[in-house]
UniProtKB/TrEMBL annotation:
<keyword id="KW-0030">Aminoacyl-tRNA synthetase</keyword>
<feature type="domain" description="OB">
    <location>
        <begin position="18"/>
        <end position="102"/>
    </location>
</feature>
<dbReference type="InterPro" id="IPR047089">
    <property type="entry name" value="Asp-tRNA-ligase_1_N"/>
</dbReference>
<keyword id="KW-0067">ATP-binding</keyword>
<keyword id="KW-0963">Cytoplasm</keyword>
<dbReference type="Pfam" id="PF01336">
    <property type="entry name" value="tRNA_anti-codon"/>
</dbReference>
<keyword id="KW-0436">Ligase</keyword>
<protein>
    <recommendedName>
        <fullName>aspartate--tRNA ligase</fullName>
        <ecNumber>6.1.1.12</ecNumber>
    </recommendedName>
</protein>
<dbReference type="GO" id="GO:0004815">
    <property type="term" value="F:aspartate-tRNA ligase activity"/>
</dbReference>
<keyword id="KW-0648">Protein biosynthesis</keyword>
<dbReference type="GO" id="GO:0005737">
    <property type="term" value="C:cytoplasm"/>
</dbReference>
<dbReference type="GO" id="GO:0006422">
    <property type="term" value="P:aspartyl-tRNA aminoacylation"/>
</dbReference>
<dbReference type="GO" id="GO:0003676">
    <property type="term" value="F:nucleic acid binding"/>
</dbReference>
<dbReference type="InterPro" id="IPR012340">
    <property type="entry name" value="NA-bd_OB-fold"/>
</dbReference>
<keyword id="KW-0547">Nucleotide-binding</keyword>
<dbReference type="GO" id="GO:0005524">
    <property type="term" value="F:ATP binding"/>
</dbReference>
<dbReference type="InterPro" id="IPR004365">
    <property type="entry name" value="NA-bd_OB_tRNA"/>
</dbReference>
Length: 106
């Protein structure tokens, strides 16, 4: 099921495929891109969904705060201008290739 915890991802994971399980902490919909902050017991990581993975992007449009989800994707380094120094995982993000909604929040 899970290969890593959200809060433990670092630069050393760049290029690796990971599977994460946790909760949607925050969702930002930019139309053709959706970003979520995904949370588990170890911390938060940014996950994004793009149009090249249409099925995952479509399902991500249904996400709301506190949905319990599983995401599989590739860890990427963030552009230097997008690094978030306030987050332990702020130098990386996960490009999602697959999304499963485990439980929806009311």
């Amino acid at each position: 099921m899970r290969t890593e915890y959200c809060g433990q991802l670092r630069q050393s994971h760049v290029g690796q495929q990971v599977t994460l399980c946790g909760w949607v902490n925050r969702r930002r919909d930019l139309g053709s891109l959706i970003f979520i902050d995904m949370r588990d017991r170890e911390g938060i990581v940014q996950v994004f969904f793009d149009p090249d993975r249409a099925d995952a992007l479509k399902l991500a449009s249904e996400l709301r705060n506190e949905f319990c989800i599983q995401v599989t994707g590739t860890v990427r380094a963030r552009d230097e201008k997008n690094v978030n120094a306030d987050m332990a995982t702020g130098a990386i993000e996960v490009l999602a290739s697959d999304l499963t909604i485990i439980n929806r929040a009311e």
